[in-house]
Amino acid sequence: MRTSGLITLSSKETSMGKITKKMFVAGDTADATFLNDPYDSLAGDFVEGDNTSKKWANRDFINEAGGRLNNLYHDYNNGAVAFTTSSTTLTTISNGGDLREVNPNYTCQNDVVVRLCANGLTGIPRVEVKDFTGGNPQYNQYQIAFKITYNGASTKIISYGNYSWFAYAAACDFGAPAASPKSINYRNFGLSILEPFPAGTIINKVELQAKVGDAANELTILRNNLFVVIAEN
Amino acid sequence: MKKFTEQINEQFGQVKPESLNDNTNVWLNNWNGHLDSQNLPVNSIDNTKLIEPTSSKTTITSTFLDWKGQTQNYAQVRFYSGDEGGINDWLSSYQIFLKTDNWTTGWNRLSETIGDFYLITEAQEGMISGQFNINWWLGLNTFKDTGAASAAWGDDWWIRWGLFLNDNLIADTGNLYPREENTCVPFKVPVGTQKIRLDLRWKTITNNPDPTIMFDPTIDVSGYIQILGANIWANNTFK
Q1: Tens digits of per-residue pLDDT, B165-188?
Q2: Is the pTM of this model over 0.80?
Q3: Residue A28 is nearest to which of B17, B40, B140, comparing CB atoms?
Q4: How many other CB atoms sit within 10 Å of the CB of residue A42?
Q5: Cβ within 8 Å, pair B182-A162
Q6: What is the C-alpha to C-alpha distance for residues A157 and B8, in angstroms, rounded to an integer?
Q7: Which among A32, A69, A177 is the nearest to B10, CB-wise?
């Protein structure tokens, strides 16, 4: 409990709360200092826990319009047009030219956390190169990743998830199995991660990308979702 | 709306003592413990009035993020093998050799492999939600028995990943059979105002054959778990 520093004279003063005042009785001098002190004190004081009633506040007092606490962006592909790639460098997933990306172009007011989540479904891949020597593990892999563009031209790959075409281990070093292995089809994939950015950063774009370990192999993606949350406070 | 007395007193002005008390009693009573929603309209606290969040990021082996806002906190521990987007991202940095390493048939802590891979943070009473991601590879092997032909071995192996909050299992993958995969599992649990520790654990089965029964005894079946990347992130929302 804080007090305003008001001089206490005779009589009684309020016993609870932050602001004290003199309780005047007949015969007291009505000095302007004492008359005005409670108001002056109030003007320069701060509201604290002692001043408020119990259980009065709820989330409605926080205004999330404008400078929001959380900013959500979403993109999805409903599977009407599949995406295929044989690129060994990360390529943005697109469906008939429709890129799987979100474009916040958001200027961060505070030091923010960008939360990235994606999931999707692969189709039946075409796998020409089947390496089980263990020397080239990338032949048996494909990858999903996030690419973020910020401050206009800066880019960063944030997080990745690797998947194998087959159930075999990369270091399986006994030569190819007698029976031709079957690829794992219709797989769900997922990624999620947090990345901080300082105040003032412009978050331009987040893309969902994919690549394969060998150009002879081809990945098919049927559906996918991309969520981006920029948390301000 | 509440009504407050706003009487300005002047030096040498003539007033009754009771008026002086009445003038101040009303608002003092409010100020001293009864301020409420009538004193602060809804939607009056916007982003510009909240204290700015704090953020810290440190890297030892894993990278830790600790971000604290006014309505929510975020925390994360992450580890990835190579430069993200680079050539090394096809390779694993950690392997658990099931034939030779020490492990149990119960839950094994990933932090025993990646030394600092666990998330400790100060939670506030409310909910904690998040996800763990583990990019693992437990593959089938092949072996040759009495000739050149090889056969698959280990198609009944499985691995299972679980996330523990203060040693309580809160999210679980179930059995996952041989493959490489980035497995994402969400979680959401209520928490008190307390320090919490989230750590990822695994259990598996394997049955590597005795290499002496194979055609070429110099080649061993080395079933192992590869770890290419992992992260645990948590979002603590509170009152």
Answers
A1: 999 999 999 999 999 999 999 999
A2: yes
A3: B17
A4: 16
A5: yes
A6: 64
A7: A32
> All domains of chain A, ordered by start, with CATH?
1-56 (no CATH), 70-231 (2.60.120.760)
Buried b (16+ CB within 10 A) or exposed e, B107-143: bbebbebbeebbbebebbebebebbbbbbbbbbbbbb
Residue-wise DSSP of B54-85 = EEEEEESSSEEEEEE-SSEEEEEEEEESS-TT
Closest to A199 in 3D by CA, of B43, B67, B77, B234 = B67
- Which residue of A117, A130, A159 is the best one to mutate when testing the B interface, meaning the one whose CB has the most B CBs within 10 A? A159
Over residues B110-139, the pLDDT tens digits come to: 999 998 899 999 999 999 999 999 999 998
Kindly indicate whether the ipTM for this predicted assembly is greater than 0.85, answering yes or no. Answer: no
Tokens 């189709």 label which residue?
Answer: A123
- Residue from B27, B32, B39, B36 nearest A2 by CA: B32
| Residue in A25, A132, A177 nearest the CB of B151 | A177
Question: What are the structural domains, with CATH classification, of chain B?
Answer: 1-44 (no CATH), 47-238 (2.60.120.760)
Which residue is listed with tokens 């990278």? B63
